[in-house]
Amino acid sequence: MLTLTLNLVVLYSHEPERLVKFYERLGLTFDRHRHGAGAEHHAAELPGGTVFEIYPAKPDEAATRVRLGFRVASVDDCVAELAAHGVTVVSKPKDSERGRRAVVADPEGNRVELIEEAHETTNGTGM
Q: What's the DSSP call for residue 18?
């Protein structure tokens, strides 16, 4: 079976600076980049090597909606921080079979799932 890993996420925005601020509040650190004659954009490298980029959308193009998911240390703390900055909370923190999770909306309306991995206590082996 082929094993795939996510290595690149690109968002296009008519207000890229607003998106950068949102994702910085989640803990990402951005640098400005330009590849050749391409558009200047913001890029962050996540642990594991995934590159997350925010490009300016062309005025006549619609920004495309996406759904993203990030694993965070504390869903409750993260949602509280984002809500304090006016971020829309779509689904408040609650426990699920995959762990504690919440959904917020970034400034473009993209849904962003935040999940805190469930800590199972089993036979002490972690299995």
A: H
